[in-house]
Amino acid sequence: MNATLIKPDIYWVGAIDWAVRDFHGYMTPNGTTYNNYLILDEKITLLDTVKHDFSEIMLDNVSQLIHPSKIEYVIINHIENDHATSLDRIMAFAPNATIYITEKGKKGIARFFDISSWNIKTVKTGDVLNIGKRNLLFIETPMLHWPDSMMTYLKEDKILISQDGFGQHLATSARFDDEFIECASISELEDSVIDYYANILMPFGNIIKNKVAEIQKLGLEIEMIAPDHGIIWRRDPGKVLNMYMDMATGKSNLSVAVIYDTMWHSTEMMTLPLMRGIREEGVDCKVIKLRATPMSIAIKEFWKARGALIGTPTLNNKMFPSVAEFLQHVAGLRPKDRITGAFGSYGWGGGAVKEAYEWLKAMKLQTVEPGVEALYRPAPEDDQKCYEFGKEFARKVKEYHAQFK
């Protein structure tokens, strides 16, 4: 992909990673992009770099416009490896360039590079850098999603360079939201936003609410949001802002995600009457088998639904390993405003369903108890219990969901 003009004298010079499928344990079935941006002004300015594997592509894109040695300012909004590990390549071409970064960012990059010869200036929220015709406003966004993170607002162009905020893991030849919607669909784009938020930013809902409120208080006019992953929002940047506010305030669907795994199909058999009971109450339902589904997809479906039922057989008096792994992932994401329950089968002795409830309570999620358990293979009376529990759970989900309208 060549350098792409996003506004006069402002270019995308990043790289598309069509092949990546594992992003620090998060499955990326649609690949990703590493976006960074070059401004041709009196002081030529580069905003962020790319993952080191793609440094040559970035340098080639920059070279289509200017020789990299002409870069005078480098802004590092985020020091994670996929954005900052080509910094040494840039500095090799432009050793006299000045780097602008947060204080925590400076401490962080010192763990990656020898920065003793680099000219580094730290910035904080409200600081403004003039590069000629343009003024760049820095906005610190700590824990979105690293302590060093910040965003850069191009005042005259009304562009928010948002680093990992408002992005998606989505490899596409389309650079903008309107281009992507034309060749794919708005629903696919929305799903990618939700997937990214659920797997990466879920723990930071309160921070996101406060930061978006801070941006609104600053009175920034935003005509374009340019994140470090995925497409650039130029058709409707307000859409992704509204989506983030909805997600940060706990918005979800009136639905139930039945997330389970099974050893000899007994727990799997229980999902059918549970689903019938849920649907009988007029609540939508999706059934997800963990070993047949990427973890990131299961987490996304958990996030989208107001209610979740966790199904697990008992193995050695414990939850089945794949279910334990799923709940471990979810616990780290600190979900809230969800109602949950558990079900499962056992042979010699139970224990898994009880342990699942302990995990759900430790996450401070609402629970509907005692759940349903079946000995060995579910009998007709177990199917009836599952059906009734599904109905009861769906009623509770509807009551709980009504609180968020």
TrEMBL record:
* Example of a GO MF term: nitric oxide reductase activity
Q: Which CDD domains match?
A: flavodiiron_proteins_MBL-fold
Indicate the enzyme's highest-level EC class. Answer: oxidoreductase
Q: Which InterPro entries does the annotation name?
A: Flavodoxin/NO_synth, Flavoprotein-like_sf, Metallo-B-lactamas, ODP_dom, RibonucZ/Hydroxyglut_hydro, Rubredoxin-O_OxRdtase
PROSITE patterns on file: FLAVODOXIN_LIKE
Please name the SMART domains in this protein's record.
Lactamase_B
Coiled coil regions in record: none
UniProt keyword list = Oxidoreductase
Q: Which Pfam families match?
A: Flavodoxin_1, ODP
Record-annotated Flavodoxin-like domain positions: 256-394
Q: What is its EC number?
A: 1.7.2.5
Return the Gene3D superfamilies for the record. 3.40.50.360, Ribonuclease Z/Hydroxyacylglutathione hydrolase-like
Describe the family membership recorded for this protein in Swiss-Prot or TrEMBL.
In the N-terminal section; belongs to the zinc metallo-hydrolase group 3 family.
This chain's protein is named Rubredoxin:oxygen/nitric oxide oxidoreductase
